[in-house]
Specification:
Distance between the termini: 72 Å
Number of helices: 7
Structural class: alpha+beta
Helix content: 25-40%
Number of strands: 7
Strand order of the largest sheet: 2-3-4-5-6
Order of helices and strands: EHEHEEEHHEEHHH
Radius of gyration: 24 Å
Largest sheet: 5 strands, mixed
């Protein structure tokens, strides 16, 4: 996908807004995490000032991606519905100062992050980062499509438990 480069601090100062659509297939890092390359993500990024006075970017991303269920190993559609507020800092030192200025309630808010940015940044890459962060580490269906698979595995385990161990004969030789 073509990059959308902005000056993050100027974008925030002017209160600009951009939106677009990201096709999963055009995002190599995202494709690696997905079952296939299908899916589209709609995104919006708006600039402004945080209540603390620091420049910020507010981002929303919505769409679907195909993930592999870690229980049944089948693909399923995972809905992405993410929003984040990114407070902008020019250096690590400034980021530490901003975080120190926030109270604990703000720091506990998972949708708020302080990030260090260079003035010229790619919005599409930022959106891709947000999507990657919103994907669960161990994705799974709420309910796997076939409970028979689980029952079949339990039945197989019961059959294995009923078979005599081939090492049982060795035990008798020891005596």
């Amino acid at each position: 996908m073509a990059s959308v480069e902005i000056d993050a601090f100027e974008f925030s100062r002017l209160g600009e807004s951009r939106s677009g659509q990201m096709v999963v297939a055009t995002s190599p890092r995202l494709v690696k995490e997905c079952a296939d390359a299908s899916g589209n993500l709609n995104w919006t990024v708006s600039g402004g000032a945080h209540s603390s006075g620091y420049p910020e970017l507010r981002m929303t991303v919505a769409g679907e991606v195909q993930l592999i269920c870690q229980r049944c190993l089948k693909a399923f559609e995972h809905v992405i519905d993410s929003s984040a507020t990114l407070v902008l800092a020019r250096s690590d030192l400034q980021a530490d100062q901003i975080e120190a200025a926030f109270d604990d309630a703000l720091l506990d808010d998972e949708s708020l992050d302080v990030i260090v940015v260079v003035p010229a940044m790619d919005l599409v890459e930022l959106v891709e980062d947000e999507v990657l962060l919103s994907i669960p580490q161990a994705p799974k269906h709420e309910q796997c499509p076939s409970d028979k698979t689980v029952v079949g595995k339990k039945a197989d385990l019961e059959l294995i438990a009923e078979k005599p161990s081939p090492f049982a004969a060795l035990k008798n030789l020891r005596h």
